[in-house]
Amino acid sequence: xxxxxxxxxxxxxxKLIDKGYKLTEQRETILNVxxxxxxxxxxxxxxxxxxxxxxxxxxxxxxxxxxxxLKKLDLLCEVxxxxxxxxxxxxxxDKERYHPHLICSSCGKIIEVKDSLLELVEFxxxxxxxxKIITRNIVFYGLCNECDNNKILSG
Length: 155
Ligand SMILES: [Zn+2]
Ligand SMILES: [Zn+2]
Known about the structure:
Elements: H1 6-18, H2 25-36, H3 44-54, H4 60-72, E1 76-80, E2 86-90, E3 101-104, E4 110-112, H5 117-129, E5 139-142, H6 145-154
Parallel strand pairs: 3-5
Antiparallel strand pairs: 1-2, 3-4
Helix pairs in contact: 2-3, 3-4
The site of one zinc ion has 6 residues, from loops.
Pfam families: FUR
Protein name: Transcriptional repressor
């Protein structure tokens, strides 16, 4: 579990202040919860439950409004991992925004693919189909290394 580094906080603060917003305690707590549970890709309900531990009086409406704001400022992006929930993760770089996710069908582990491989694919699609891609939702299902090894051992 890692909290926001001071570098990251500085970047986020600047983005908020540039648009006339403050880094309030509530906003910082919400951001920290998302960063600490990064690999889980939390839904709004999950964020709310975890933020309540630190800020018991916070309402879900505040969490919701904060998410909308952070999304508007391009600090958060929404991911759909195919389970019916909108999930959120923090993005610092534009090219990391829509990275593919790998989901292990056996243990449910989520693995991030932080690679710019897709840029070339998208560039080619846009050019050849004369189409501007706005959003993408790329999930690959399979077996993580551990589950794959277990399968071999038990099978
Ligand atoms: Zn697995
Ligand atoms: Zn991700």
